[in-house]
């Protein structure tokens, strides 16, 4: 089977970037769930609803358009495996379930909308509509390996809380990226050096788990060609965004490592 080169040549180029992990952010741009392993597949669905009516002189009923449903994203067979590292992954399951629960006592009368992000791809705003998992290994009775399925349903942006419509760190980062040129290898190296220096200078401002990694030098800094500077642990798990490196300067206002 041959490829249609005319169609292929009309498609935009896509950059290959390693060590990018999927995550969920809430309506204020705060990271609320990071995937232990990236999805192996993403399934999308959408449907248009029609109301069936009676039509004279024919056995085929008429169809009156009702509405088109929001786009649904299904993430199936996600791997949660921490058994080999001697750790429980129960916390990850709890964090994901929390996205489906309201908390009226704290003024939260509906679950938080989220956005799925994976590199340049994003889906949302959306709500988590269902979760199911099968546990396959345990440590001390706690789950240490499981396969997980969950579904995100797209919602209109006007359903977001009022505060969510203000500019988040993610919005600022996206705005900055739209005017950023690609870095050279030299610039990327300089940016890496400045990012490491910034982490060491601001180690006391970081959350405890991040400051511990910085002090013990058990982390990595990676810079994409578009200038996005990210922090990873020694096993390649994404820890968040440090900021954006452009014009020989590190802009950390777009980062999410330090709570504002």
Summarize the structure in words.
The protein is α+β, with helices and mostly antiparallel strands and 260 residues long. The chain is built from five helices and 13 strands. About 2% of the residues have low confidence. The protein has a seven-stranded antiparallel beta sheet with strand order 2-1-7-8-9-6-3, with helices on one face. The protein has a four-stranded antiparallel beta sheet with strand order 10-11-12-13, sandwiched between helices. The chain folds into two domains: 138 residues, Elongation Factor Tu (Ef-tu), domain 3 (Beta Barrel), CATH 2.40.30; 80 residues, no CATH class. The termini are far apart.
The share of residues in helices is 10-25%
Beta content comes to 35-45%
Which CATH-level-2 architecture of the largest domain?
A: Beta Barrel
Structural class by helix and strand composition: alpha+beta
Overall 3D geometry?
Answer: globular
Instruction: Give start-end ranges of low-pLDDT stretches.
Output: 175-180
Number of helices: 5
C-alpha Rg (nearest Å): 22 Å
Overall pLDDT, averaged? Answer: 85
Key traits:
36% strand, 2 domains, alpha+beta, single chain, globular, 260 residues, four-stranded antiparallel beta sheet, Elongation Factor Tu (Ef-tu), domain 3, 13 strands, seven-stranded antiparallel beta sheet
Summarize the structure.
By secondary structure, the protein is α+β, with helices and mostly antiparallel strands.
Question: How is the topology of this model organized?
Answer:
Blueprint: H1 5-9, E1 23-26, E2 31-34, E3 43-45, E4 48-53, E5 62-68, E6 72-81, H2 90-98, E7 114-118, E8 121-139, E9 142-154, H3 169-177, H4 185-201, H5 208-215, E10 219-223, E11 228-233, E12 238-246, E13 249-251
Antiparallel strand pairs: 1-2, 1-7, 3-6, 4-5, 6-9, 7-8, 8-9, 10-11, 11-12, 12-13
